[in-house]
Amino acid sequence: MSGYMNERFRALDPTAGFRLGDLRSPGALADGLRNSIIGQDDAVDAVVRAMTIAAVGLRDPRRPIASLLLVGPTGVGKTELARQVARHVRGDADNMCRIDMNSLAQEHYAASLSGAPPGYAGSKEQFSLFDRETVEGTVSRPGIVLFDEVEKAHPTVLRALLQILDTGTLRLASGTSTIDFRNAIILLTSNLGSREVHDMRRPGARGPAQWAASVMRRMSGRGARSERDVVLDAVRDFFDPELLNRFDEVVTFTSLDDAHARRVVDAEIDHLVEALAARGVRATVTDAARSTLVDAGFDPRYGARALHRVIRAELHAPIAALLTAADGQCSTHLIADADATGLMVTASPALVLPPD
């Protein structure tokens, strides 16, 4: 075995930091994530696999616990998966350090990742966008760091990422302090390949050259490319090999379909019904109403995001209006139904409005 490999294996310490016992079992973790992330079982399995490998000690303690690039079309659950990992690991879906990479598109903003260099205003304050406590975590509560929409960041930021993924540390520009990422799970999201996937799913929208290329591939026996192939090609085109090779795994997400959209609607309605029940209000949402919400709100180009907006506008808003009009004297049963004219929410029996 080479000296390099001997060094790497000596560095593996099964007793270091993050342990499987600090989490729920892999099976329970996978089930919990699948219940929250609809239609992405392969992606969930990949994340659980990477975390399990790290948790049993088969990791290099000189690097982050795991570094995963979550990539695929918009609105399919990439950021939500990161939030659910935080919920299972740290007990709260928002208990993580989240960096919106879109805000670091300009070079002068990108510098805020590691703070101001010596001699510049703010250098003594050791300012950084990273919350040190959340990043470094504890033995039983490792840090979670989310770099959202990484492809929108300035190249300077990508160079800082290379340092984090390679050494598990980031030296602040002041030169007097270092943030330690070796006890953190690093998650990065990207929409790379989204446009190409959309074009692939709508052949009629493609130009003659693209259509001809598709025909030639089929005639040559290569067959049609999968969504995963398209996304991974976009990832390879964007990232330098030096950075791409630092990810423990590239986790691909796929487009949602109508069946997935219906599951999203059902899950949202379940949460709504539970919230109303806690207020003593019974609610029924018919199958017709659910189908109407899917038809009105689902567009494969935007994933589940448009669904959430339609549910808010067509269901939450009228229910809120009824409850507000009742001034606390609400009906015990709200019914959401739909016909050819659209979705409607009624109260049974009728709400008793307060006197003028």
From TrEMBL:
Q: Which GO terms describe its biological process?
A: cellular response to heat
Q: Does the keyword ATP-binding apply?
A: yes
Q: Kindly state which keywords UniProt assigns to this record, in alphabetical order.
A: ATP-binding, Chaperone, Nucleotide-binding
According to the UniProt entry, its GO molecular function terms are: ATP binding; ATP hydrolysis activity
Domain called Clp ATPase C-terminal: residue spans: 256-345
Q: Domain (AAA+ ATPase): give its ranges.
A: 64-257
Q: Which domain of life is it from?
A: Bacteria
Fetch the CDD domains from UniProt.
RecA-like_ClpB_Hsp104-like
Identify one Gene Ontology CC term for this UniProt entry: cytoplasm
| Pfam families xrefs | AAA_2 (PF07724), ClpB_D2-small (PF10431)
InterPro entries registered for this protein in UniProt:
AAA+_ATPase, ATPase_AAA_core, Clp_ATPase_C, ClpA/B, ClpA_ClpB, P-loop_NTPase
Q: Which Gene3D superfamilies match?
A: 1.10.8.60, P-loop containing nucleotide triphosphate hydrolases (3.40.50.300)
Instruction: Report the PANTHER family cross-referenced here.
Output: ATP-DEPENDENT CLP PROTEASE (PTHR11638), HEAT SHOCK PROTEIN 104 (PTHR11638:SF18)
Know the name of this protein?
AAA family ATPase
